[in-house]
């Protein structure tokens, strides 16, 4: 399986990312990571789909795209994705978004509908009600916990950063080579003051966009189907789910095109960052891609 990085011109600079199997035939996958993550979130996902081209950007303010300036909102992310597809010569893709990346994917489908061959939301994309009594500036800390804490920290070396992540309740017990590569990629700077590449300013902007306000809920309701939604039974701390069953059921009733898939024994991260989690998502995606290829071949 081949892997390479890329850069693509976008507003005010270049968007970085990675792609796997660039010469593969058929409709490619555009994979969109979460709020403090990077394209290396998708290593195992791409490994499980070797017959397809998988394109995964580092969103503005994250990874090697972290020097791109504001705005950092969902609409800017969506337009950056369109520019990246232009640069890579891709007309349409099946769009798969994880966590906050699912919100970006829905916004991308609203703003660039001709570029979307299908929409898959992995434990994200359904509005998350804000906790009662929490001020907007406190939302990132409440929603993200340790994943946000690291953005204000420095680390003496790579081993110290790995140790930080190994203590994370939702990642440490499930540690694998892909998680380690993801953690290593996130570091920037020089020892002994290494730090995460994710911009706290960018994260803060996106954290307050996840409640469905500003027209987002309407965009989700209008998304053409089928829209696949994969739900993890455990959340960001390997405990309570990000999406309770009742909330998902409510949205499934409002969205006849929403197809809900419950993935067993995963949390919000391991649904894509372990072989078992990614392997549970891939069969549906492979079937959707096959249907798209068949439809386009007949038209």
From TrEMBL:
Gene3D superfamilies: alpha/beta hydrolase. It comes from the Bacteria. The keyword Hydrolase applies. GO terms for molecular function: hydrolase activity. Residues 28-148 form the AB hydrolase-1 domain. It holds the Pfam family Abhydrolase_1. It is an enzyme of class 3 (hydrolase). InterPro entries: AB_hydrolase_1, AB_hydrolase_fold, AB_hydrolase_sf. Its EC number is 3.1.1.-. The keyword Protein biosynthesis does not apply. Keywords: Hydrolase. PANTHER family: AB HYDROLASE SUPERFAMILY PROTEIN YCLE (PTHR43798:SF31), MONOACYLGLYCEROL LIPASE (PTHR43798). This is Lipase. It comes from Agromyces ramosus.
């Amino acid at each position: 399986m081949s892997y390479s990085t890329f850069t693509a011109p976008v507003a005010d600079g270049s968007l970085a990312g990675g792609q796997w199997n660039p010469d593969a035939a058929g409709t490619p996958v555009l994979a969109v990571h979460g709020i403090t993550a990077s394209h290396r979130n998708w290593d195992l996902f791409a490994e499980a789909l070797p017959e397809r081209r998988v394109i995964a950007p580092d969103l503005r303010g994250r990874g090697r795209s972290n020097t791109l300036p504001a705005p950092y909102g969902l609409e800017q992310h969506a337009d950056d994705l369109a520019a990246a597809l232009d640069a890579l010569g891709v007309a349409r893709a099946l769009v798969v978004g994880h966590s906050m990346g699912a919100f970006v994917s829905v916004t991308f489908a609203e703003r660039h509908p001709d570029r979307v061959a299908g929409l898959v939301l992995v434990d994200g994309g359904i509005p998350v009600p804000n906790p009662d009594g929490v001020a907007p500036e406190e939302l990132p800390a409440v929603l993200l916990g340790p994943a946000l804490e690291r953005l204000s920290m420095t680390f003496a070396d790579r081993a110290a950063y790995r140790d930080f992540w190994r203590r994370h309740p939702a990642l440490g017990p499930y540690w694998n080579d892909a998680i380690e590569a993801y953690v290593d990629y996130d570091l920037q700077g020089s020892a002994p003051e290494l730090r995460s590449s994710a911009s706290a300013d960018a994260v803060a902007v996106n954290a307050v966009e996840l409640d469905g306000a500003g027209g987002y809920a309407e965009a989700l309701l209008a998304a053409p189907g089928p829209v696949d939604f994969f739900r993890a039974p455990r959340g960001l701390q390997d405990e309570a789910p990000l999406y309770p069953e009742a909330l998902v059921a409510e949205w499934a009733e409002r969205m006849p095109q929403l197809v809900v898939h419950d993935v067993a024994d995963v949390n919000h991260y391991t649904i894509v960052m372990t072989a078992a989690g990614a392997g549970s998502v891939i069969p549906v995606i492979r079937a959707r891609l096959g249907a798209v290829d068949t439809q386009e071949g007949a038209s």
